[in-house]
Amino acid sequence: MSTIKSEPSAAAARGGGGLSPRKRRRVILGVQYAIVIGVIGLIAATVDWPTIREHFLDVDAARQMLPTLFTVALKNTVIYTLSAYVIGFLLGLLLALMRMSSAAPYRWAALVYVEIFRGLPALLVLMLIGFGIPIAFQGLQFPGDVYGKVAIGLGLVAAAYMAETFRAGLQAVPRGQMEAARSLGMSHSRAMVSVVIPQALRLVIPPLTNELILLFKDSSLVSALGITAATIELTKLGSDAAINSADATPFVVAGLTYLIITVPLGFVVRRLEARQTRGR
Q: Which residue spans traverse the membrane (predicted)?
C-alpha cells in the first residue's frame, strides 16, 4: 500500500503540478515570446516614426551618396581589407611556424611580436605607421601612400591574430601525418609545406574568414590618416555626407553597405563550421 501511495506523489513531483516537462517548456517559451513581443510593441509605440523617416530614411540624402558610395568608397574599403588580409595571412603563417620552431630565438621573437600587436589598438598602430614611421625614417615612401600605410598597419595587427589561429591549426594536425611524410623520405620542411600546412589551412578556414570580416570593419579606422576624396572609405563617406546634409541617413546607408559584405561572409563561416562538424 505504501508503494502505491508514493507513485502518484512522485509523478506529481516530476510533472511539476500536473505539467509534463514538454508542457513546461512550451509555457516558458510562450512567456518569453510574450515578453519579447511586448517589448517590441512598447518600443514601436514610443518611437517618433515621422522623425525616423525624416532623419534616418531620407531617400534624397541617400541618393546624394551615389555613385561615390560604390565606385569609390566601397571599392577602397575592399582594397584596404584585402591588401591588409594578404599581409596578415602571409606574416601570420610565418609567425606561427616560428612559434613552433625548435630554435628558441625564433619562438621568442614571434611571441614578442604577437603579444605586442595583439595588445596595441589597431588605430594606434595605423597612426604609428602613418605618422611615426615617416618621421623616424625621413624620405620613406609607402607604396600607394595611404593604401600602403593601411595595408601594412592593419596587416601587422591581423598577423598577430592569424598567427595564433595558424598555430592552433598546425597543432591540430595529427602528429602521424608528419611522421608518415618523413617515412616517405620527405624533409621536415617539405613535409610541412606539402602535408601539414594544407591540412591546417582547411581546419582554420572559418576563423580566418572571421578575421576577414573584422578587417573589413577595421578599415573604417583609415580616416585617422587624413584620407582624400580619392581614397575615402565607407565610414568617412557616411560621416561627411551626414555633416553636409545634417541628416543621419548616410550613416544608415554606410551601415547597410557594410552588411552587404559581412552578412554573406558570416553565412559562409557558419556553413564551413557546420561542414567541419559533420566531417568530425
A: 27-47, 78-98, 119-140, 248-269
